[in-house]
Design a protein that fits this description.
The chain is an alpha/beta fold. 30% of the residues lie in helices and 20% in strands. The strands form five sheets. It has a nine-stranded mixed beta sheet with strand order 7-5-2-9-1-10-14-18-19, sandwiched between helices. Strands 13, 15, 16 and 17 form a four-stranded mixed beta sheet that branches. A two-stranded antiparallel ribbon has the order 3-4. A hairpin with a 2-residue loop joins strand 15 and strand 16. The radius of gyration is 21 Å and the shape is globular.
C-alpha cells in the first residue's frame, strides 16, 4: 500500500501525464485535485496520442478508478465532450469515474470574463487559455460560484446564476438557455457524483494504491509561483489535501517532474529563455507546442534555482526527468545555478516577479551527447555524458531521479531503485 503524488515542478508542461501513466499501472485510483480544462496532459500509447484536459490520465487503464476532487473547476459541457471523445476511442467511465459534487462550476460567463480581461487595455496580460478558470476560482473565493451539485437542482441553479450575473453586472437575457444546457449536462453527469473524501479514505484503509495527479506546475502556484503570472489554484503539494479531502499525513511519496530543459507558455519572467537558434531547435526537437492551445512554448536551458525552490516547498522524495532525448545532438548544454540581480548574485528564487524579470542567469556548461537514447531502457546503458548531466542536476536540485523518460511512449521509460 502506498500513496504517491506526481507534481510538475517548473512552469507546467513537464510531461506529468507520461509519468502518471507509467506509474498508474500499479495504482488503483488516480485523482485530479486542482485545475480545470486548462490542463493539457498528453500520453502516447502504442503510437496513439491521447490528450486529457480534465479527465485523469489514468483513464487509459480500463480497470483503474479515476476521481475529480473538490478543488477542481469543471466546465460540464467540455467535460462531457472529452468523455464522449474518449468513449469513441474505446474507454469506459461507468463504475470507475467519480466527481466530487463540491467541485466548482465553470460557466459560459466565466469564459467571457476571462477573454475580456485578457483583452482589456491596461490589464496585466497573463496568457491564459481563456477557458474561464481564473474567473471561476475568483468567484469561488468570493463565495458566489455555483457548484457541480447545483446542476441537479433547477431552483438552486437559477438562484446562483442570477446572483453571479448580478455580481458581474451582466445581462440575464440568455440565462434561460444557459440553465437548460447546464441542467441537461447535470442529468448526464449525476451518475458520477460521489463522496470523494470518503471513497479515498476507504480505498486507503483497504490497502489500495492511490496516485494524485497535479495539473500545471509549481512555478504557476497561486501562492508561490511568479505572481501575477500564475494559474488560479494551488499546484504545489499543499494543494493535494485541500483539493481532494485526503489527509496529508497519509501521503508517502511526492515525486517531482522536471524537464531536461525549461519551457514556459504565456507571459511572465523566464531567466533562461533562449530567443535564438538554440531555443528554436529545442522547440522543434521537443515538439513544444501547447496541448490545450497549440501555442509555441518558450524554451531555455534548465533552471536549477527554480528547480531547487520547488523541490524544497513540495518536500519531494524523488524526481522524474522527462524529454531527456530532446537534448541529444547538442555539443554543449548549460545549467543555470544562480542569478545575478542588479549586480548581486543569489541562489534563491526571488519572491518578486519583477526581480526575476531582470535576473541574469549564472551558467555552468557541460558536454553534450550525440547518441540516440530513445531506445535505451537501462540506466547503465546511457551515454556517459548523459549520466553526468543527470548527476549534476541531482546535485544542484538536491533530489534523486528515479524515473527517466527518453521518449513520449510509456515504454520509453527507465526506472532506478
Amino acid at each position: 500500500m502506498s500513496v504517491t503524488a506526481v507534481l510538475g515542478c517548473l512552469w507546467g508542461d513537464e510531461g506529468k501525464a507520461k509519468i502518471v501513466d507509467a506509474l498508474a499501472v500499479k495504482a488503483d485510483a488516480i485523482i485530479r485535485f486542482q485545475g480545470g480544462s486548462n490542463a493539457g496532459h498528453t500520453i502516447i500509447k502504442d503510437g496513439e496520442k491521447f490528450v486529457f484536459h480534465l479527465v485523469p490520465s489514468g483513464m487509459l487503464y480500463p480497470e483503474k478508478n479515476c476521481f475529480l476532487g473538490a478543488g477542481t473547476v469543471i466546465d460540464p459541457i467540455m467535460l462531457l465532450q472529452e468523455m464522449d471523445e474518449l468513449r469513441s476511442r474505446g474507454l469506459s467511465f461507468e463504475g470507475r469515474f467519480f466527481i466530487d459534487p463540491r467541485a466548482t462550476l465553470v460557466l459560459p460567463l466565466h469564459k467571457e470574463l476571462d477573454s475580456s480581461r485578457e483583452d482589456s487595455v491596461g490589464q496585466t496580460k497573463i496568457g491564459t487559455t481563456r477557458r474561464g478558470i481564473g474567473p471561476t476560482y475568483a468567484d469561488r473565493a468570493s463565495r458566489i460560484a455555483p457548484q457541480i451539485i447545483d446542476l441537479t437542482n433547477p431552483v438552486q441553479l437559477r438562484a446562483r446564476l442570477e446572483r453571479i450575473y448580478a455580481f458581474h453586472k451582466k445581462d440575464t437575457q440568455d440565462i434561460d438557455n444557459v440553465i437548460t444546457e447546464l441542467l441537461a449536462a447535470g442529468e448526464r453527469l449525476k451518475p458520477y457524483f460521489a463522496q470523494v473524501p470518503y471513497l479515498l479514505d476507504r480505498f486507503h484503509s483497504e490497502g489500495r494504491e492511490l496516485l494524485f495527479e497535479g495539473a500545471q506546475g509549481t512555478l504557476l502556484d497561486v501562492g508561490f509561483g511568479t505572481y501575477p503570472f500564475v494559474t488560479s489554484s494551488y499546484t504545489s503539494a499543499g494543494g493535494i489535501s485541500a483539493g481532494s479531502g485526503f489527509a496529508p499525513n497519509k501521503i508517502d511519496r511526492i515525486l517531482g517532474v522536471y524537464k531536461a530543459y525549461t519551457t514556459r507558455v504565456g507571459e511572465g519572467p523566464f531567466p533562461t529563455e533562449l530567443n535564438n537558434e538554440t531555443g528554436n531547435r529545442i522547440r522543434e526537437q521537443g515538439h513544444e507546442y501547447g496541448a490545450s492551445t497549440g501555442r509555441p512554448r518558450r524554451c531555455g536551458w534548465f533552471d536549477a534555482v527554480a528547480a531547487r525552490f520547488t523541490a524544497m516547498i513540495n518536500g519531494l522524495t524523488d524526481g522524474a526527468i522527462t524529454l531527456l532525448d530532446v537534448l541529444s545532438g547538442f555539443d554543449k548544454i548549460k545549467i543555470c545555478i544562480g542569478y545575478c540581480i542588479e549586480g548581486i548574485s543569489t541562489r534563491e528564487m526571488p519572491f518578486n516577479a519583477e526581480d526575476l524579470e531582470h535576473a541574469e542567469p549564472i551558467y555552468i556548461e557541460m558536454d553534450g551527447w550525440r547518441e540516440d537514447i530513445s531506445t535505451i531502457r537501462e540506466y547503465d546503458q546511457l551515454p556517459e555524458n548523459t549520466k553526468k548531466y543527470i548527476a549534476k542536476l541531482e546535485e544542484v536540485i538536491g533530489i534523486r531521479f528515479t524515473v527517466i523518460s527518453v521518449g513520449p511512449d510509456r515504454k520509453q521509460t527507465i526506472y532506478r531503485t
